[in-house]
Amino acid sequence: MALPLLPGNSFNRNVGKEKFHKSQHWGFCNNVRMLVSDDKPGIGGQPLPGQKMKPKYSRFPTGDGTDAPSWVAFDKQVLSFDAYLEDEVPDKSQENYRIRRYKIYFYPEDDTIQVNEPELKNSGLPQGTSIRRHRIPLPPPDEDQFYTVDHFNIGNDMVFYGRTFKIYDCDTFTQNFLRKIGVKLNPPRQCPEDPYMKARREMLECMEPLRPYEPFDTLGQFLEYDGKVLRFFCLWDDSPSLFGDRRELILHYFLSDDTIEIKELLPHNSGRDAMSLFLRRGKLPKYGPPGVYQPGQITDRTVLNVYGGLTQTQVIGFLLDKYKPEKLNQEFYKDSDLSIGTTINVWGRKVLLCDCDEFTKSYYKSKYGIKNFTSIQRKAPPPPKIERKFPPYTGFGSEEDSLRSCIGLVPTLHKKNFKKFMEEDSYGNVSKILRFFAKLITDKCADVDRLFVISYFLSDDTMQVFEPIEENSGLTGGKFLKRSRVKKPGQEIFKSELSEYIKAEDLYVGATVNINGYLFLLLNADEYTLNYMEKNSDKFPFSNFELALQKVKDEESKSIEIKQVFTAADCKHTMMVDYNAFREILMSLTVGRLTDQEVITIARHYRVPDKPCPDLDVIIAQAHEQLKKNDFENFDKLLANCVYQDREKKNVLPRKDIRRLCKSSRLPLKDDFLESLLSRFEDSEGQINYESFFCVLNWRANPMPELKAQPYLKERCEEVWLRMPSPVPVKYIDYVTLLKDMLGLEED
C-alpha cells in the first residue's frame, strides 16, 4: 500500500525531505515540464544551512576505475530480502496479531527501497505495493540520513515509517552480493506462522463436505501428449506350445491416456487370418488375467446415493463414498515399466520388448535418462536350406521346359530374359549382331576351302552359321545351322543341371569354336563387331588395347631387332607398313603370345586414316555410270532452264538453284552424292558455272574411262577366299608411333 503522505515520498526521489522549505521553480527535463529544486551550493562551494550535497565518492566500485557514476555499475541489479511484519489486530477476539509477509527490494544504483506484499487469496487485505520505490530515511534521531546497503542483513529489524520489518532470508544473488562487499551474512531464520491462517486451515480440514469432490485431471495430460505414441517391436514366442510359433508384434503406448494396443505382423503365406488388432486399445493390467468382476466393482468413484430436487427443473446430484472400502486396486502398465529387454504380461502371454523407434528412444532419454537402447534379435533363425534335387533331363523338348515340369504341378513356359532382349535387340542401324568370317577345320580335302559367316545374336545368345553360295563349287551353300543356342562340347546329355552354352566372350578372331562337332577357325570380323568388342573390353580381354600393348612392351630386350625389322619392311620410307607385314612382324617377335584379335586391336589403334575424299575424276566416272544405267540424256533442257534462271547473264547460278533444277528434272543421283559433286564446282562466293557443270556430266559428249575395281589385300592366314576376298581390318599401320609408345624409339 502506497504511503504518499509519509516523509520521504517527495516528487523528486533523489532529494530527501528537508526541515525547511526549499525553493523550487518550473523547468523542463526530457521535454517534460516539472518542478526542479534550486539545490545550488552557497558562496565558496559550501552548502546552505540544511542543504545536502551529493557525495563525491561512493563505497561501491565503479567498475573500470573511471569517473563514471555508481548507477552505471549497478544498473538493473536488485537485492531481494524476505521479511515479515507483526500487525496488531485490536478489534477482533479471534486473533491479537497477524503475520504478514513482505518482499523488500533494495536498488544499489541509487539506494532506493521498495516494499511489496505478495497477494494472498481471500485475505481481505489490500496487498501489492506497500511502499513505492524511493529513498527511505532512518528512524529518529537519524532522520537526516537514509538507508544504505550496510543496514541490511538477515535478522535485522528495518523500521520504515514507524513499521518494523524483520528480515529472515534473502535470495542467492543477494547473498553473493553482500559477501563480495564484505558483509558477514547471518544464517537464515524461520518465519513464524500466522495463527489465524493456521486456525482457518484446521477448520477447513474439519469441514469436508458430504459429497466430496474428486478431481480426475486428465485434460492436462491429454493436451500435452496428444498424438504422441511410443512404439515397441515385440516378440511372443509360443513355440513350446502345440502348433505354436514365434509371433512378431508391435506395441503402441499412448501417452495421452496411458493405454496400450498391440498389432501383429503376419508374414506372407502364414496361414493365419489377418486381424486388425492383436489387443484392442485399453489399459493393460500387470497381473492378468485378474478374473471376472461384477459390474461396478472396478470404477474410479463409488456412488452412495442419487437424489433430485422437488422443483420443476430437477437438479440431479449424487453422494460419493470417500472411503471406498470395496474398491479393487489394479496396477496397470505405465511408460516407466516399458524398456527394451523387459517381458510384459499381456493377459497371460509373455511378450518380450526387443526394439523401439527413434521417438521412443528420445522420449526415454529426455525423461528417464536412459542411453542404452541395444536391440534384441526378434527374427527367427532361418531354417536350414534343403537342397532341391531335380531328376535328369529326359531328352524330350528343351532342358528348360523339362525343368519347369518339375517345379510346379502345372507346367508353365520358361520365362526368357525380357530385359536383356529389349536392351540388346537390334534397332535402326544398330544390328546388335556379332559376325565373324570362319573356315572349317577338317581333314577332308573337299571341305578345306569352305568359308562360313558365323552370326551371334546378343539379344538371346543364339548363333547362326551361313555358307556363301559359290558357283560351280559343287556345294549347295546357304544356311548351315539355323538360329539356336549352341552347347559347349564335353557335357553330359542326361543330367539334372542345365547345360552351358557358347557365350559372346568365347568368340574372338583366332579362336577355334566347336559347333555341334564341327570345328571353325575365326579368321576376321566386321567393323561393328570389332567396335563392340573394343567398347566392352571388360568382357573381351583380347580387345583391350592396354593389355595387348603390354605384351609387346615385354619384348623390350628386342628393341633394336624390332626397329630393324620395321625399317626393312618399309622399303620406300613411308613411315608405315601394310597389315600383312605388320601381323607377321608381331607374331614372329612375340613367339605366339599374341592372338589375332590382339594384333587387330593394336593395328586399329595405329592405323593410317584413309583419304578424306576421292579424286574428282573418280566422282565424275561414278556419276556417268549412274546416268548410263538410267539412260539420262536430258542435258539440253537443264541448260535451257539455267539460262532462263540467269537473268543477269553471268553464266553462274547459286548452288541451291542448280540443286533445285536437278531435282525438278529428276537427275538420277542420290542427294549426298549430288551435294558432294556440287561442292567440287562451287567457287568462293557459292556460285557454280552451270555450263561447265552440265558439260562434265554429259556422258555422251564427254565420256570418262570406266572404273576398275581395286583389288583387296589378301591375308597371309588365308591365301584364297573363293572369289570372296575378305577385307583386312586396316590397310596401313603407322609403326613409328607404335615404336614411340612401346619402346621409346624414334625413326631416324
TrEMBL record:
<dbReference type="GO" id="GO:0036064">
    <property type="term" value="C:ciliary basal body"/>
</dbReference>
<keyword id="KW-0677">Repeat</keyword>
<dbReference type="GO" id="GO:0036126">
    <property type="term" value="C:sperm flagellum"/>
</dbReference>
<keyword id="KW-0966">Cell projection</keyword>
<keyword id="KW-0969">Cilium</keyword>
<dbReference type="GO" id="GO:0160111">
    <property type="term" value="C:axonemal A tubule inner sheath"/>
</dbReference>
<protein>
    <recommendedName>
        <fullName>EF-hand domain-containing family member C2</fullName>
    </recommendedName>
</protein>
<comment type="function">
    <text>Microtubule inner protein (MIP) part of the dynein-decorated doublet microtubules (DMTs) in cilia axoneme, which is required for motile cilia beating.</text>
</comment>
<feature type="domain" description="DM10">
    <location>
        <begin position="226"/>
        <end position="368"/>
    </location>
</feature>
<dbReference type="Pfam" id="PF06565">
    <property type="entry name" value="DM10_dom"/>
</dbReference>
<dbReference type="InterPro" id="IPR006602">
    <property type="entry name" value="DM10_dom"/>
</dbReference>
<feature type="domain" description="DM10">
    <location>
        <begin position="430"/>
        <end position="537"/>
    </location>
</feature>
<keyword id="KW-0282">Flagellum</keyword>
<keyword id="KW-0963">Cytoplasm</keyword>
<dbReference type="GO" id="GO:1990830">
    <property type="term" value="P:cellular response to leukemia inhibitory factor"/>
</dbReference>
<keyword id="KW-0206">Cytoskeleton</keyword>
<comment type="subunit">
    <text>Microtubule inner protein component of sperm flagellar doublet microtubules.</text>
</comment>
<dbReference type="GO" id="GO:0010975">
    <property type="term" value="P:regulation of neuron projection development"/>
</dbReference>
<dbReference type="InterPro" id="IPR011992">
    <property type="entry name" value="EF-hand-dom_pair"/>
</dbReference>
<dbReference type="GO" id="GO:0030317">
    <property type="term" value="P:flagellated sperm motility"/>
</dbReference>
<feature type="domain" description="DM10">
    <location>
        <begin position="75"/>
        <end position="182"/>
    </location>
</feature>
<dbReference type="InterPro" id="IPR040193">
    <property type="entry name" value="EFHC1/EFHC2/EFHB"/>
</dbReference>
